Amino acid sequence: MTGTVTNFLAVGRAVRTAAPHDLLGRVRAALAEYYEASEVNLLMADYALTVLQPVTALPHTAEPLPLSSTPEGRAFGSQAPHEQHVAQDGSVDVHLPVTVRGDRLGILSVRLPPHRSTDDTIEELTELAEVLGHEIVVASRDTDLYLQARRASRLTLAAEMQWQLLPARACRREEYAIGAQLEPAYAIYGDNFDWSTSAETLTLMVTNGMGEGIQASLLTNLAVNALRNARRAGIDIADQAALADQAVYAQHRGAEYVSTLLLSLELATGRGRVVDAGSPQLWRQRDKRVERVDFEAQLPLGMFDETAYVAQDFRALPGDRLIFVSDGVYAAVSAAGEAYGERALARAIQGASLLPAAAVPRAVLQELSSYRDADADDDAMVLCLDWFGRGTPRN
User: Whose CA is closest to 217, among 253, 187, 184, 194?
Assistant: First the structure.
């Protein structure tokens, strides 16, 4: 046991002391030395969540792996180690989720000799993959390597701005799990989401800036940062909306505005407050029933000067699934001009019932993509919040 602990600590130390661009190189060397690994690869989930992109030196030439039909993809989807026996020499490839607080970054694949493929080793490697994930997040402040590896194609400038504005694509705590996704992932422009948690509250916001391309992205950036600035000053969500409204109006004088839905929940009780300022919708799945949750509609941010906003009461119960969608989802039209509609959206949400929160947005957007016009010029956002409540037993 002492030897395995020593091995674990040695590899962990190697990861934490590696240069930002050399995490994989140090991991490879350490795993070879302490676990007899003959091959180690790091794969990053791309922006569209369709493939796993190998981290290689630029230019990236290694072939991506599909998420839907590979052992690596199964490990990513299940968020559990997946073993794959290599026939020629009896070695075992172990595919390990690289995940940080629920945010699924990718997969670490390690090839081990048969005698090292034990339960204890796989448990240690699973923890080391998590350590690596944390270091990738920190290293990304100083290197573009891991962000570049996520790209199956080039991002538009507007999409670059929007992805850099996001907190993550998923988050998990005792009381909740969040997953979110934007589409088209490589050309998003106006839709966005944000969240922040403290010891007592969770605050969520979804935004939809009007317009297209850079103009929509700049508008959304202004609104999101104004909302963050107010939130970080300790102001309640009604006043957050009011201050962001003033910031957007001061810049655009009502010519451009941002539709926003703000939600603040007490972690201990599930009681919360909502400000509905525009087009994003909230849907709730409680038990087997899926329904839209209506609020009193208020003006989008920046439409008029000094708009006063009022927060409305809301309550989430343990087991609730809350789905936030932009108008690019519920107002999508087919090539024949038929609206997607509430019934189709409810079916898509119901169809994703068995998936974890992190996988729900992609599933709903995939269902939408089979319906909407391929030439549609609106972007789409889905955010899923699974509410467990504090102290509630979960399966």
Answer: 187
Q: Is the pTM of this model over 0.90?
A: yes
Q: Report cis status (omega within 30 of 0) of the bond before 66.
A: no
- 333: its two tokens: 């039209």
Q: Which two tokens stand for residue 258?
A: 């941002």
Amino acid residing at 308: A
In the block, which residue shows the tokens 């948690």? 197
Residues 239-272 have pLDDT tens digits of 999 999 999 999 999 999 999 999 999 999 999 9
At 353 the three-state DSSP class reads: coil
Between CA 131 and CA 28, with CA 2 as vertex, the angle to 5 degrees is 40
Give the residue-averaged pLDDT of 199-226: 95
CB 53 within 8 A of CB 66: no
Report the candidate in 60, 136, 121, 275 with the shortest Cα–Cα distance to residue 51: 60
Q: What are phi and psi of 360, to 5 degrees?
A: -65, -50
Helix (H) or strand (E) holding 39: strand 39-45
Residues recorded for the chain: 395
Residues whose CB is less than 8 angstroms from the CB of residue 150 and which lie 6 or more positions away in sequence, other chains included: 44, 45, 46, 47, 53
List, for residues 263-282, the tens digit of each pLDDT value: 999 999 999 999 999 989 99
Question: Mean pLDDT across the stretch 312-324?
Answer: 98
User: With bands split at pLDDT 50, 70 and 90, how would you rate the model's confidence at 378?
Assistant: confident
